[in-house]
Amino acid sequence: MTAGAHWFVPCPRGLEAVLAEELGELGVATGKIVQGGVHLGASLAEAYRVNLRSRLASRVLWQIARAPYRSEDDIYKLALRQPWGDWFDVDLTIRVDVSATRSPLRSLEFTTLRIKDAVCDHLRSATGRRPSVDTRAPDVRIYAYLDESQCTLYLDTSGDALFKRGWRTEAGEAPLRENLAAGVLRLAGWRPGEPLLDPMCGSGSFIVEAAQTCLGIAPGSQRRFGFEKLKTFDSDLWATEQVRPPFESLAGDPHLAASDVAGDSIVQTRANLARAGVPADVLELILLKQVDARHIRPTTAPGMIVVNPPYGQRIGLRGASDEGSFFAEFGNTLKQRFAGWRCSILSADLALQKKLRLAPSRRTPLYNGAIECRLYRFDLVEGSARRSAPAALPPIEP
Ligand SMILES: C[S@@+](CC[C@H](N)C(=O)[O-])C[C@H]1O[C@@H](n2cnc3c(N)ncnc32)[C@H](O)[C@@H]1O
User: pTM of the predicted model, to two decimals?
Assistant: First the structure.
């Protein structure tokens, strides 16, 4: 891992461009943006920084080898010749994962086994021992990505996925992954200082990400990373990255508010904010209230509403006899009480704007895991109450 090493930073699909923007703000020069992530040419210090400070990245993968292949045997030989003993101790546990696009190989499971065998065979011939496999909590994760002709091997420097910030013990109903929540805030155009309201907050993912951003708390400041277990770990360099001054910080009232019809959600959100490092005096300024989303009122100057309503059969809307009437009423509340606000709604319901009877100014495709969603943006201008029949939609963004 030297200056100019090659890295791949995966992220939830739909966030690639904003991830590249965020990495630029972290001072890291980005390479090609592809579906599912961003390539980087970066130093070790920069890779530590992305692990610690990126809100949108899912992992930081260090590219250790890349070669053409035609069979599982070619991949076995590529993995066998890598100097695994230079990177980690044979006493550490490993896990191998393989993903592929248009690979001619028939079984990715078999390929995964062959890579695992190659790592074990290499270390056994070098040390006389072989590492154990632990698929649940491995010390070292190895990834292979196959396209139609090339195999790329990566060592994962993150360990647990980066959306696991280390503060969440209160999950609530269908919580968003933290990096998706942070990505939605960025796509919506929210910036620290602008009033933010989440009227269906659940466990508070949006508000926690926003509060940490306002306070300059690095998202990874409460967790450990895979790179700490590698032989290449440079503790001095890591210490230097950790004391770097925050990139964004805002003193005083962060103008954040969250509500939910469920009292448990308010308790969870408060507990999650505290665990995420929000000090008690700032926590007191964050407005948390149990209220039905149809009855909310603005408590600040116009700002941004960001919301992820329940969708699907597993979780339902509370207090409404049917979805259609709930969203019509919620839409009315937005139109009548929130003129001058911008509202971004993340939903897997591709007909949501009809139910709200509001015309979105933008619809951005986004994936919540495997679920295809849209991030709808509504500009609640004075008089939008009259625009009940939506005009033709603008084209969906790529
Ligand atoms: C998909 S969850 C939100 C998850 C949240 N974004 C998170 O990351 O934890 C939807 C939330 O809407 C809330 N909800 C359901 N009906 C509601 C209503 N009528 N008014 C306000 N909140 C409601 C549920 O209690 C639930 O917490």
Answer: 0.92
